[in-house]
Amino acid sequence: MPLSSRPAFLERAQPLLGTTVAVRVARADAAAGHAAIDAAFREIAKVHRLMSFHDTDSDLSRLNRLGAMETVRLDPRTAEVLALALELAEQSQGAFDPCVGARAVADGDLPPPPGAPAADPMGAWRDVHLDGCEAHFTRPVWLDFGGIAKGYAVDRAIERLRALGVDQACVNAGGDLRVVGGESELVRLRAGSADTLPIVEITDGALASSGGGDAAMARHYDGALGDQIPLGQFVSVAAPTCVVADALTKVVLARGPAAGAVLGFYGAKAWAFDAELGWRSIGAAS
Amino acid sequence: MKTEFMLLGLASLAAPAGVHATTYLSVPQVQALMFPGEALKPDARTLNDAQIAAIHKDSGETPPSRELKAWRAAGGGWLMVDEVVGKHEFITLAVGLDAAGAVKGVEIMDYREAYGGQVRGGAWRGQFTGKRHGAPLRLGRDIQNISGATLSSKHVTDGVRRLLATHALVLAPSVS
Questions:
Q1: Is the dihedral of CA B25, B31, B35, B38 positive or negative?
Q2: Are the beta carbons of A45 and A37 closer than 8 angstroms?
């Protein structure tokens, strides 16, 4: 398809979610397009405020201050992320566990949440209970949505755009992205050997990546084993939604090919790189 | 959802893919977006040594240039356009302030990223002219996206803080 036959796009970028978030919409009317992009950025900022570990007023911080058997009422968006996080924990047998906050604090990656009761060392996702928008813990735990909230923010932005009549769009949060409306995106994966160029072409779906970096980057944990995932592994996951793609990168990092069943459950596929094995596809990868 | 994974040899590409560059907004576009319907008067400044020292003391950041690109809005607001230089990226940033000095908006106007020692020459785009399964790829498609090793926006945040200090120390006192 020659460039000229693609519709004209409006694209803007703002510093959000600790990275650069770009929103691109097919352009019918410039004013309406910019208004839709503004709404998408506002929604992303809202998700960030709700689910920030650092902001003491966030829903997540209110959760982390909960004592055993106390109840807190969450914004529906926070409840949706928590429900999905618990489902992912169950599907991955704890490889993905939103209760990694205590471990991340112990390793100095996150500050202790102010005013929170000490996390129970035995606490895990099974101690978190959600009834509608009301949550309670059977043991005090510290949740961290660092492995899932960015993908959710991308999905919410896409939903806002659609609600405002935008059919074709791409929302890209520092390389975790979702594209809708029949457009395909070429995405370079930042991994592999220097003389190759790994590229995923994705149409109507989401792609997220984790790992592959140095020690200065965020660490990931195997929730079930409590271990840090070794550096140097790189995973990209394609899934129908960005929240699922984002979270599943951690499951594939932790479990490798054994993550195939979880990927299948979510209609996702993965490409993993490590220096010894090179590139591998996991799940129903093409 | 449809996906396809391709592993291309760099030798098959007409140009190395070491630079990622996107232009989002021009100065007139960012003016219209942040100050719709308002006349903006160019009010560029050249920062002197004392001002640069004061900005550094206040924000912890040193302006990358003495030349400050600024516009004054009819309603008393300000628009500043500046460069932010990170470890691997060069960003043109626009910060709009209302008449009270509060942030109206922050937009990234231009983003250029270089990494991995693959930078050769000027700012070109990694145009996708390689081959896939022996067949030529669609022409004219740019690799707009890179996934993995998310870059921090710390430099942008630092730049916004520096521009807020610049406004408070240089722009605001000049009109009061």
A1: negative
A2: no
Are A20 and B108 inside 8 Å of each other by CB?
A: yes
**Contact criterion met (CB below 8 Å) for A270 and A248:** yes
Tens digit of each residue's pLDDT (9 = 90 or more) over B29-73: 999 999 999 999 999 999 999 999 999 999 999 998 999 999 999
Residues of chain B numbered 4-43 and touching chain A (CB < 8 Å): 4-11, 13, 17, 22, 24-25, 33
- List residues bridging with B8 in a β-sheet: A197
CB contact under 8 A, A198 and B5: yes
For the record, the structure tokens of A216 come out as: 């200065």
β-bridge mates for residue A14, sequence order: A21
pLDDT per residue as tens digits for the range A195-245: 777 889 999 999 999 987 544 445 666 666 666 666 678 999 999 999 999
Whether residue A143 is predicted with pLDDT greater than 80 in this model: the reply is yes
Nearest 5°: phi and psi at A163? -60, -25
The HSE-up count of residue A143 (CA atoms within 13 Å, CB side) is: 33
Contact A202 B1 (CB under 8 A): yes
Contact yes or no for A15 and B156 at CB 8 A? yes
Put simply, the answer to whether A197 touches B13 (Cβ < 8 Å) is yes
- Judging contacts by C-beta atoms under 8 Å, the chain A residues touching residue B146 are 175, 187-190
Residue B21's DSSP bridge partners are B112
Task: Write the CA distances from B124 to A96, A189, B140, B142, integer angstroms.
Answer: 40, 19, 13, 11
| pLDDT for the residue A187 | 87
Mutating which of B145, B151, B162 best tests the A interface, going by the most A Cβ atoms within 10 A? B145
Reference A159, options A233, A241, A239; nearest CA is A241
With 0.90 as the threshold, say if the pTM is over it: no
Chosen for mutation from A27, A190, A244 (greatest number of chain B CBs closer than 10 Å) is: A190
CA distances from A40 to A21, A47, A172 (A): 10, 11, 11
Tokens 């209302």 belong to residue: B98
Q: What is the DSSP string of chain B?
A: -EEEEEEEEGGGSSS---EEEEE---HHHHHHHHSTT--EEE--EE--HHHHHHHHHHHS---S-SEEEEEEETTS-EEEEEEEE-SSEEEEEEEEE-TTS-EEEEEEEEEEEE-TT---SSS---B---EETTEEPPTT-B--EEESSPPPSHHHHHHHHHHHHHIIIIIHHHH-
- Check: CB of residue A79 under 8 Å from CB of residue A130: yes
Check A185 against B25: CB less than 8 A apart.
Answer: no
Chain A CB contacts of B148 under 8 Å are 175, 189-191, 209-213, 234, 236
C-alpha–C-alpha distance, residues B154 and B57, integer Å: 18
